[in-house]
Design a protein that fits this description.
31% of the residues lie in helices and 26% in strands. The chain is built from twelve helices and 15 strands. Strand 12 and strand 13 form a beta hairpin. The longest helix has 22 residues. The chain is globular.
């Protein structure tokens, strides 16, 4: 973790409001019936009453949804004023995908009386399904009319697919004696192995920050939050992480590193860390959050690679589901990772609120109580702590256990 993310946490206060916590932002969500027989909201708008500085990160999957193509174009100047987003259909691998994405932006711009190039578009849901502009034509005017500073809950509900809970966080912090706010909403439960950002996440702030610095901060924080999450090893085609700054807090615009930049990054980290952990906790069919810490590695990349390899192991995830202290699966996952380390120095602990037990030391098994280990691994948050004993660098990754429900959810995803 970067030091600037650790130092200012005592000055950060969590607040309500999600994506509407920052001054100038409103949101709305509605059921547009994009997915047949759906009873949930599936379309949302986020809007600011001024053009914002903005930045985004996108999936590294070679197959990308049409909305990403359009959003990249619209954000090329680092400016945005609104987001139109839907769930139920990813608008990916569709012959008319670009037409749909562009059309949604045009309709949104008209309804809000803003420049079409200042509209961000995003979609999530089933890949390769036919899509029509009709729901957008019907519902965007209603969304525009319904925009509210209290609309964050309806908007957040609209981006959920297999998510079982809303993911919203917001914080209050101070820059130049001015009270600033930063908050957002995120979705993601399956097809989670970001390799850059996350499924869909929209973050807003009233702190004045340049577009270039927003992009820098987003990359820096993403590397130790969303990039360290994996539910199932699948990277989505539509992953999009967006941040918008209204500047309404009135601080001097942050245009370089140091000072206020570090405070801003600390606030961004507080929100994105919680998004990352909640995404792992809400993994499809999951019953447990798994946190893997690799410490005392000789460099940061080794620690990250090792932690992600362990989190991604289906065999380990299944063992944790059954509260089985099968520590050999930890060593196996370490061994096939690309991390370089001396296996004869490795120690492994299992930990939770129920206690801590060492199961491996210097690369070989320790005597331990299976009953105690079972109790520890039966908690809904489990930690795997791996000590490589080769340096001072560390990394943390988050994932979840693998249950029968994961197969059931994905076997029935299109129905």
């Amino acid at each position: 973790m970067n030091n600037c993310m650790e130092k200012s946490n005592e000055n950060i206060k969590f607040i309500d409001g999600g994506v509407c916590a920052a001054k100038g932002f409103k949101a709305a969500g509605i059921n547009a019936h994009i997915k047949a027989n759906s009873q949930k909201n599936d379309m949302a708008i986020i809007y600011c009453d001024t053009v914002c500085n903005a930045a985004a990160l996108y999936t590294q999957n070679k197959v990308k949804g049409a909305p990403i193509t359009i959003t990249r174009e619209h954000l090329s100047d680092g400016r945005a004023q609104a987001v139109i987003v839907n769930s139920g259909n990813a608008n990916t691998c569709n012959a008319n995908g670009i037409e749909i994405a562009e059309g949604a932006c045009i309709l949104t711009a008209k309804a809000l009386n803003i420049n079409v190039n200042d509209v961000i578009v995003a979609s999530t849901g089933v890949i390769g399904q036919p899509m029509s502009l009709e729901p957008f034509k019907r519902c965007i005017p209603l969304l525009a009319e319904g925009l509210s500073e209290k609309g964050n809950n309806d908007a957040c509900a609209a981006i959920m697919t297999t998510d079982t809970r809303q993911k919203q966080f917001a914080v209050e912090f101070e820059l130049d004696g001015r009270i600033c706010h930063l908050g957002g909403m995120s979705k993601g439960s399956g097809m989670i192995n970001p390799n850059m950002a996350t499924m869909l996440a929209f973050i807003t702030t009233d702190a004045a920050v340049s577009s270039e610095i927003l992009y820098r901060a987003l990359n820096q924080v993403n590397a130790v939050t969303y990039d360290m999450v994996s539910v199932d090893g699948d990277t989505s085609t539509n992953d999009t992480l967006v941040i918008m700054s209204s500047g309404y807090a009135g601080n001097d615009e942050i245009t370089e590193a140091g000072g206020n930049y570090d405070k801003f990054v600390s606030a961004l980290y507080a929100v994105m860390l919680n998004f990352a952990k909640e995404t792992a906790r809400d993994g499809e069919g999951a019953s447990k959050l798994i946190e893997c810490e690799v410490k005392n590695a000789h460099n940061k990349e080794t620690a990250k690679t090792a932690a992600l390899s362990v989190i991604n192991s289906p065999l380990l995830k299944a063992a944790i589901s059954a509260a089985d202290a099968n520590w050999g699966r930890v060593m196996c996952a370490l061994g096939y990772s690309k991390a370089e380390f001396d296996v004869n120095k490795v120690s492994v602990n299992f930990a939770s609120e129920a206690g801590c037990v060492r199961v491996c030391e210097n690369g070989v098994g320790c005597e331990f109580s299976e009953e105690e280990a079972y109790k520890i691994l039966s908690e809904d948050e489990v930690r795997i702590v791996i000590d490589l004993d080769e340096g001072e660098e560390s990394a943390v990754a988050w994932g979840c256990d693998l249950t029968y429900d994961y197969v059931k959810i994905n076997a029935e995803y299109r129905s």
